[in-house]
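I hope you will forgive my troubling you with a question about protein structure. The full record is reproduced below for your convenience:

——
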Amino acid sequence: MDTQAGLGSHPDVPVARRPVPEAEPGLVQRWRAEGGELVDLLTQVRERVGGVAAFRLGPTPTVLVTDPQAVQHVLARHPDQYVKRSHRARLLIGDGVLAATGEAWKRQRRLLQSQFTGTGMRRYDQRITEAARLTAERWAGYARTGRTIDVGQEMYRFALDAIWRSLTGHPLDDDTERELAAVQAVAAVLPTLPAGADAADARDAVGDDLARIDAVARRAVEAARSGPPGPDGPGLLHVLTDAATERPEYTDRLIRDELVTLLAAGHETTATTLTWLHLLLDRHPAAREEALAAGEEGSAQRRQAIQALIHETLRLYPSAWILTRHAAEDDTLAGYAVEAGTDLLICPYLTHRDPELWPDPEHFDPRRFTTPNGRPTHPGAYYPFGIGPRACLGLQFALRESTVLLEHLLPAHTLTLASTPTKTQYGISVRPDGPIPATLAPPRT
């Protein structure tokens, strides 16, 4: 780790302002010529320059931030100086809380915050459990018939059902599931759109899918306003429609944007994490057995061991592999001068793979999260959902639904994968690039 960077992040340690060390231009030129992924360039910049490193992709200076204390400085200590200008998924989520900025973001965040902590989370426990139970029943049927499944699609189906129940109070039906496949389709296209594409051109590229999403959202909002509550009672969507009666900013469009934001963020990241976890368990079967042996069904020990599987998966494949910020004013970051107008890329993916923070970082080892001193304690060393005021609202929801599903599936089934993807897709999230066909062994008796 860059020692000077670490020292400079403490506000009471005086360090002279110096220019941020910059990667040699030839590094970027070679990367462009080879047509590599952005993660390849960032990895080389981090290895050659350090945890706070400058490089140029265009006229605007860019700084890569992976040093834990610098990460905390940007995301947690000075969020008003390092601002979010736009979200890559704005075409899909509009002005939802992920993309909102300034006072609008503060109002939207405040409304939703209570729904994802404490009492608010307990409201969704039964809905998550029902979605997990239904998945377990479906898997038992697959095991009996020997049917081949796609692990990724199964995880998407579960996560979509869990968030749909939580939003609407209704289980996910087949028609809605088919229509909401458009969310995945749009999310997959967004990273491929040219950086300079205007809104009209970008919308034309995914117009039909957006129309399908809008239609589902419109029906859900109408049902929340005029129909009876679902079998599980009112959902998160009712919180939004109720807000509209007192807050004029909650127009039909903003309610749609919040609904789609919660839908997209509430199932895509969880499904991707669970998919990676199944791939990792296929490569490391002993980790599954260790988790199940940690305690009896329903015990705190087993739950902790299962959550360690999830956390280690998130270390290797964080929900948001890269976070973008913009320096709104001049600042000193880790002793380096960051000028107003600088773009920053904060990269959990690389922080989590720093060998000075995480020994043998490429190895899947859930015991990092169950043994004393198994992981670094600095908040900027592990942040799969971000840190600070813009950390993901759904952190507890995602961990809860992942844990409940694995409590249902891991004791009953082992997967035999017919093939595994050979590439990784670095888009809005980090995803396996391809299907994962598998069969299930019969449930244990």
About this structure: Residues 3-440 form a domain with the Cytochrome p450 fold (CATH 1.10.630.10). The longest helix spans residues 252-283. The mean pLDDT is 91.
